[in-house]
Structures
1.
Amino acid sequence: MESARLANRQSIRKKGWDYAAAAGYFVTINTHRSRALFGTIVNGRAVLSEAGRVAEAEWRKSAVVRRGIELDEFVIMPNHVHGIVWLQGLDASSPSRGEFGRPVAGALGTLVGAYKAAVSRELRRKGLIHPARPIWHRNYWDVIVWDGKALAGIRKYIRENPQHYAAMANMRELRWIGNRKLFEGPKMGFMASRGVDGVPCGLPVKPGEAIVSGFLSPMEQAVFRAGLAQQWPLIWVKPWGQEDRASSESVRHALEEGRLLIVSPFADGMDGPNMRRAAWCNQYVLKTCDRLAVGHLNPGGLLACVLSEVDPDKEILYL
């Protein structure tokens, strides 16, 4: 089961891509079991602990002590590190890449491994963590920075990450309309980037399992319509007071028949641009679902960034 989950998690990476190639990479490195080791968030800003200051100092040193690396936007969060790394790429004289599974000089995985090791050594040297206690999750997330538009979006996501984190940490009691019991049962999260419509083939809904989503993108909305028509259990996460589709006849019937739950975990004072609210809804779906299905993923888009916040051990199916 553990190896299957790891395989699902890695499928976000581009098949056949050389991760020693010259390119930009958005990297997320999680602490072990999402432990808030590096500090806290106060008024939407990261306040680092001594361990967090070590993590920041070692990240800054990466471009100094390791060849072929340039750093871009980054942030040290309580339980993870976000950063954009530019690799210059290996020259033709470099040894064979990945031979016998050895680390490859200049490759992304080698950089991440070296950074984790440096932080771990320094934290243990300073006595900030027990020598036998794990510090990092065994793996990491990465998103290739494909173009200038993706770069701008990822930089913005990194800068706003403390605000997203604060929003999730300060959620209020659920307000809800519909069948609350759906929230207590098994839940499959569904997410899809914009750009593609229609229900994906082979949507893996199990009997009795509710689909939980913000139902924001065209494909997510198509799944919502199909769920209403085919009487699937649905949980719709949304900011309170945005009624839009909630007043439709099919939605009213689903509510009356116990097939739909509309929930909002967000305080009234929490507001922001549409993209920020979309990120909050998606992050809440990630937090509450038992497993996740992704119908369409735009490389470098908002959803790719949001997925870097998922529990690294959660099952993810890419359709």
2.
Amino acid sequence: MSATPLLELRGIDKSFGPVQVLRDVAFAAYPGEVTALVGDNGAGKSTLVKCISGIYSTDAGQFIFDGQPVSIHSPRDAASLGIEVVYQDLALCDNLDIVQNMFLGREKRRGIVLDEPTMEQMAAETLAGLSVRTVKSLRQHVSSLSGGQRQTVAIAKAVLWNSRLVILDEPTAALGVAQTAQVLELVRRLADNGLAVVLISHNMNDVFAVSDRIAALYLGQMVAQVKTTDITHAQVVELITAGRSGELGLVTEPATNGNGAAPAGSTTGGVS
């Protein structure tokens, strides 16, 4: 495991009007590792990802990428750093084939015409580099693909552009057992190829199957980020539902002793 994160967030705040969705969030994603981002609905996972990808601007905090402070104000800024997001809806066009989908909006041209041979070769090399063998033809329409194959194409599209950090939003949510195994194998392969991977998932079996670290959000706060081997399934569930599990997570706010002071021995809130 790398000791230095590729992406590090410090003190991230994000509000929508009077509602504070993210509060002093710290997060790190490491090259060659899968970091699972977990949390209940409304915990702030999607908002955090949209801040990383440049869709939302942050109210406060710092982004460190590859050891250098950076500013991300738009998806173009994120893409220029090598940050790609595969959203749950995949954003694929059923009426186009695999190559056309992988290069949609970034087509290669030779003069005024599309450079189809180059695009087909690049698509084939990307899929081969990910050891994808379930696609029969690069010219298949996406409408003819299974759910697992569609997810594979969406992931390959994300890594085609010299990506360094890939964020996957619930990649196995609508898949069967065999297709889930196929996609999880691909997720692991991304990390083994040196990419930093962030996996958003509600499925704890998937999380423990492929992740190296687990980061738990609770009501907009990052309550823990630990190595997967150092935490149990039950502890993760407690962090997601209550923000605390044993010594991990939020520290209980102290009661006052009547004059505004905390009683002796009490502690204030924080993240373990």
3.
Amino acid sequence: MSLSSPLKYYCDENAFRFHILDVGEGLMILIIFPDNKVMLFDCNVTEENADDILNYLDKNIPLNYNEDTDLEEKIIHFFVNSHRDDDHCRGLKKVNEKFKIKSIWDSGQTGASTQSDTYKYYMYLRRKLRDEDADNLKELVPTDLPIANIGGANIYCLSSKEEYQEGYDNCVKIFEAYAKIQHTNSIVLKIEYANTSMLLTGDSDWKCWKEKIIPTYGSDVESNILIASHHGSRSFFTDEEQNDSIDIVKSPDTTYIESIDYINPDVVLISCGDYKTQHHPNKEAFKIYLENCENQQVYTTKNCGHIVGYIDSEGNYTVVPSRFCETRTASITYDMQINCTYTHNNTTIPVKSGSTLDVGGTLKFSLSSKLGFFEPIDRINTWWEVSNGGKGVDSSHQEIYYKGQEENDGIFSFKRDLSYVGRHLLRCRVYNPKKGTITKIFCINGK
């Protein structure tokens, strides 16, 4: 299976790859290990997004040998359920019918909405797999040793039910309290490959980070890529039921912000829907993430759509919106081209997409079209978007941003400095209301 864009710009099938799917108010992360084993961390397939999500999985899950059928099939080797809230296991039946799930990793924590169809199906599948083979069900226990090594990637469990039972077993579990224990006992995984790491935090809250994870693991939680907890909610930093804001001075006993210092991420990724729905990401939490990662690199699925990334065998990594994909044209009638010149040491030369150039020069991009695609010019809308994939000394530069209109040299060109070692993608989308949309990708390698 050849990689689809945009991963094909960066890596091959031997890399660790991941996809944070745009599933609205929920979480769903597809992970492909270097040996092509497949993990799905949580699931939120709804009636509204089912076609898109199932097609996306079909496009990105590789073929693997299925010993049950003696065939090469698209299967999911591990489904990890961080906790049993509906937005973390919804639509699992549809996924399992299309991509057979072979095993489940679970926290062991009972869910809150035990009567929902989503919950009932998850528990049915959990029992079914366990009855077929006890090894098909793994209830995770936090440990400082890897719980698995898949394709050379070490997986660590930092939190699950095991650590937080005391004080809840004999109390009356109203819905709010139950929801809280769900989050306190959420599975937290750290995946490390080639000394580069990603942290999957589920819906884990301030309490488990303050009382167990940081006291137990300390700086070992440090990770390059952080998948933010609970859709960017402030519950990661404070008790939402008791506190109106994230204020360590006002609420010192129920607020904990130091976790982000220990994690020390380069990039923070947040799975969330429209802010008006659940007010995610929380504005205070978002500000804390911005202030505590490199270059304010905080990205949401709401703004980026599906977010994809990789870590290669040398530890190079990148995150990029999936929309940095193949060229799309309005029709067979119209087309356009991105042109580029490179100026370095007072010399200007034309360059092609895929060129490798010394950092320190200036790139100028411009557009040309055939058969009048840019007419009438006063109706044209143009968007230029950049995705940096820094390497080596510039590995922390993973910026994703649109060029502002004030930076453009007219609607058909703009300049940017080539400042970082690594691969840089430029995505240009031009919309003509009468003739359609054309999207082109231009790639430059900085050395």
